[in-house]
Amino acid sequence: MAKNVFRQPLNRGETMYYTLVFKFLCACIFLATPTFASDKAASEWKKDSTHDLKKDKDGNKCHQPVDDCNDCCKIGPRGHQGRNGENGRNGAPGPQGPQGPVGPTGPSGASGTNGVTGATGVTGATGATGVTGATGVTGATGVTGPTGGIGAGGMVPFATGGPGAPGASLTNITGGTPGTVALLGFGSSDPAFFAATPTSSITLTAVGGVTIANYAFMASRDGVVTSISAFFNFDALVTLGIAGVVTVRAELWISPNTASPLDPNNTFIPTGVAANISFVAPTPAFVILPGTFGSSTSLANFPVAAGSRLLMVFSVSAPVGVLPLATTVTGSASAGIAVQ
User: Fold this and answer.
1) What are 50-105's pLDDT values in tens digits?
2) In sequence order, which residues have a C-beta less than 8 Å from that of residue 90 and are 6 or more positions away?
């Protein structure tokens, strides 16, 4: 297809633009050759027989023929103002002006999303204790706990009593074995004489017309005797036959509560739970002075059934020859047992 080499008709804006360019070029040419233009005009006017070349009052030659003109270069009325030309190019930016006043605060923007939680700060100081609140309602009773272990148990004391009391009167018989023994109660005692050596049993009945007082006590529950302690103080001088040891023995006796309907009764047997107090007379006098005392404690593990009767018995013994036959030892005595 052949190319159209002819330019399209100019629009109104293009026509005005090219017209102004043309006029501008013509003006430049005219200003560049003023004398040539004037002389040429004058020559042309001289050739015309109907016009004369005139000068104005200032002596300037006229550039165009005029008729009957006193001033040959008379200026005509101003023409209409031409159309505005196109805007020129933007000039270089001017210097920055002074800062204007601060404008009014704009509306608050939308809240942003929450940031990551920061690290926990240092714990502050403890505040003052607040007022004690009202007492709450009492809670329900809890479940009963397991039964606790056996406690320390109780103690049973024995003593011969204060001043004027008979005290403990003890004797020995053949071979240095015990003869008369003392039964201790709770602040009193009874020196009991036995025709036979009381090593197997003691019966709290009238012997030889003498009624033996009841110093036994009843066990109110099952328990275990765990220890026994004894003390003896000599009230009178005791002279020994030869050098040796005199032993005062405190022993617990029992009338046990067995399956027999006759138990317990008034007959007591030794339990072996005893505390032995040993005394040694100094030589060469071989005497034990009044006021001499001693004590002893022994551990035990002797079970006692509820309803059994217990009796504290004091006796004296010595090797053959140390304590002369039928020597009486008198003094104040006390003892105690622990029962769990």
Assistant:
1) 444 555 555 655 555 545 555 555 566 888 888 888 888 888 888 988 998 998 99
2) none
Dist. CA 109–CA 302, nearest whole Å: 94
For 275, half-sphere exposure in the C-beta direction (CA atoms, 13 angstrom radius) is: 22
Are the C-beta atoms of 18 and 10 separated by less than 8 Å?
Answer: yes
Bridge partners (DSSP) of residue 178 are 172
Query: Taking CA 143 as the corner, what is the angle to CA 142 and CA 149, rounded to the nearest 5 degrees?
Result: 120
Measured in whole angstroms, the distance separating CA 320 from the mean position of its chain's CA atoms is 74
Long-range contacts of 49-57 (CB under 8 A, 24+ apart): none
Q: What is the dihedral of CA 181, 278, 285, 167, to 10 degrees?
A: -30
- Alpha-carbon span 18 to 284, nearest angstrom: 170
Domains and their CATH numbers in the chain: 10-72 (no CATH), 154-339 (2.60.120)
> What tokens appear for 117 in the block?
């939680």
Residue from 254, 271, 266, 277 nearest 168 by CA: 277
Nearest to 253 by CA among 230, 267, 271: 271
Q: Provide the CA 15 distance to its chain's centre, in angstroms.
A: 99
Helix and strand counts by DSSP (H, E) for the chain:
2, 14
Q: What angle (nearest 5°) sits at the alpha carbon of residue 335, between those of residues 203 and 168?
A: 60
C-alpha 184: how far from chain center:
59
Q: Which of 229, 234, 235, 279 is nearest to 252 (CA)?
A: 229
* pLDDT tens digits for range 127-159: 999 999 899 999 999 999 898 766 667 899 999
Q: What is the pTM of this model?
A: 0.54
Structural tokens at position 36: 């040539």
Q: Per DSSP, which regions of the chain are E strands?
A: 154-159, 168-171, 181-184, 189-192, 202-203, 217-218, 223-234, 238-239, 245-255, 267-280, 287-288, 293-304, 309-317, 328-339
Contact 312, 229 (CB under 8 A): no
278 with 246: CB under 8 angstroms?
yes
